[in-house]
Amino acid sequence: MTSSETLGHSVTIDEEEVYSLIHNVKSVREIQPTQFTGRVAIWGEIMEQKGNRINPKLTYMEGGHRTSWVENEGIDEATGEEFCIHHVVCDCSGNYDENSPQKVVKRTAKCLSALKALQRRAAYVDYTYRTTEVLDALRDPTAGDFEQSNTFHKVAVKTIANIIELDIRHPEEWPANVINGQHQASILATLLQVNPEVVKWYGRFLEEKGIVVFDGETLTPSDDLREELRSAA
Ligand SMILES: [Zn+2]
């Protein structure tokens, strides 16, 4: 379980594309792991032939295209590094045989159907945790996202911190990220229904507080935060 803490690669996703989907949420359907079929399941079989253990947690169907959140345990054949990590994978990886989770996530992040599935997952997480409901109650509708009250910003930042913590403690819960231990500002913006630039501002704030490392797009939990959660557990 330690290798997930040393992942160095950030994933870039098309922020414009994600943001354009924000106000277009449809009803959220939860599909059981038995829907892990078709091309994404072929990918799972290829990985298992390589000695990985694939444990599918949830699959969303978007226009006949599957996007799954899976637990993937194995040894990276390129680096020899052991890993056990949760991440997204979609039908696009059906014949893809490199077994590095980072590489499959990079492919998946380029898929528009997968981005839509992520956006649906973000809507589900929002619905479950009442995030935008709470923020809407605090929101001044006459002001822009940056000009909201300190209370609004504090609740938003706290929500992000909670999501990061949830992902560390229970990665199987899939808080709409692409890989365990990384959180894209654009997806968090979908979840909070705020402008991605505001989330980046929150990201810099959380970095100053030592909670995350922020590269301008991806929030990664700091070693200090992981240590704090470990000692509190
Ligand atoms: Zn795809």
Features:
233 residues, alpha+beta, 2 domains, three-stranded antiparallel β-sheet, 6 strands, 44% helix, binds zinc ion
Can you put this structure into words, describing what you see?
The longest helix is centred in the last third of the chain and has 20 residues. The chain starts with 14 loop residues before the first helix and ends with a helix. The N terminus is likely disordered. The strands form 2 sheets. The protein has a 3-stranded antiparallel beta sheet. A 3-stranded antiparallel beta sheet has the order 4-6-5. With 233 residues, the protein is an alpha+beta fold. It has 2 domains: 114 residues, no CATH class; 116 residues, Arc Repressor Mutant, subunit A. Bound molecules: zinc ion (ZN). Zinc ion binds next to helix 4.
